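Let us begin with a simple case.
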Amino acid sequence: MRRQSQDGSQRARKGGPDCGARRKLEGDLISREAVTATGIHIITTTRTALLTLGNRVAEKIAGKTDVREIARLVDAEVRDVLGALADETKFFAAMEADALS
């Protein structure tokens, strides 16, 4: 939010025009590019993990006829994939490995 100062110029409410630059240097702000890259990484990782579910469960459910057992096996695989994606330690380690490669 901006406010009018006594001399008529506009300044950011919290620290002046270069407040964002100062906060970025202090580690309070993250660049738009970093946030965008992280979002893209999350989406592509999730997409890839979900697209591989068929191959992951095919062998386990081949020949099964009990619908409940098939549903349980598919559910377990989905939970494994989502659990791996939700583990932030593994996720950020994978992101850093990606960034370094």
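The second case is a distinct protein. As before, the sequence precedes its structure tokens.
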Amino acid sequence: MYMRARDVRGVGPLLQSFSDEVVRDAVASSLGDIGEGVAVPALIDALGDGEWSVRHSAALALGKIGDVRAVEPLMLLQEDENLGVRYTAALAIRMIRGEGYSGCSGGCCRVPR
């Protein structure tokens, strides 16, 4: 069955498959596209994943969902070893705060606390 990007029926099955390391990156991205707040706790957990691509996708998904519960965990990603993850975390925080994207002005795209 084909699901539209905002079809909430897909959230449950996606959350269940989040434990499979092969699909975590795609799952995080899909959860962001669906945009349901019920996915926020699992996406916050994914910010600690060992794979940078999963952390990146989870951060972007949280930015798309726009739930303020994600701001503090995203702040912690500003210390991530991967520059792309740090950048995406800063962008996601701006998205959640409704600040949009204004580009990086130095400091590895840090967002003021």
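Residues 41 and 70 are 8 Å apart (CA to CA). The domain at 8-109 is CATH 1.25.10.10 (Leucine-rich Repeat Variant).
Keep these points in mind for the review questions at the end of the chapter.
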